[in-house]
Design brief:
Structural class: alpha/beta
Shape: globular
Radius of gyration: 14 Å
Strand order of the largest sheet: 1-4-5-3-2
Largest sheet: 5 strands, mixed
Strand content: 15-25%
Distance between the termini: 16 Å
Number of helices: 6
Helix content: 40-55%
Order of helices and strands: HEHHEEEEHHH
């Protein structure tokens, strides 16, 4: 399931950013360009973080950027952006952020299976190694498919 919502065009490796807002803009841009979300969706992620703090920094070095579907989610999708260097998102427990996963969900239910698999990936230490070493989005996709297939056995 997750390999259906993360596609190679949505993967960006070793992106340079100036701050957390720039990281969100750059991670969201591929979803906008792919037609998965509107520009307003990306802007709403930033507005929400400015209002509520970095609630989407969910684990050490990991941000799961998202906004309410009404902000402009068009399709179920997830982008992966690795940041080099990592960026401070002002989440004391989990900074700096190296991995930004940008989620677009069009309703409350269809993404739940993908999120279960996403949590499995986040629990695998070698997932982060794969993200750090990969030279292309294709390598990340191959890792995801292989890791999830082995987990199902």
């Amino acid at each position: 399931m997750i390999e259906d919502i993360i596609t190679t065009p949505l993967i960006q490796l070793r992106v340079k950013t100036t701050d957390w807002r720039d990281a969100i803009k750059k991670s969201g841009r591929v979803l906008v360009e792919n037609g998965d979300v509107t520009q307003n969706y990306v802007e709403e992620i930033i507005r929400s973080a400015e209002k509520f703090g970095p609630y989407f920094v969910i684990a050490p070095h990991v941000a799961l950027a998202h906004a309410p579907r009404q902000a402009g989610a068009r399709k179920l999708a997830m982008g992966i952006t690795t940041l080099d260097p990592p960026i401070v998102f002002h989440n004391q427990a989990n900074d700096p952020v190296r991995y930004v996963f940008t989620l677009s969900a069009t309703d409350a239910d269809t993404h739940l299976k993908a999120m279960q698999e996403f949590v499995q990936l986040l629990s695998m230490d070698d997932f982060y190694t794969a993200l750090n070493r990969a030279g292309s989005g294709q390598e990340i996709m191959a890792y995801i498919k292989s890791a999830l297939a082995m987990n199902k056995e």
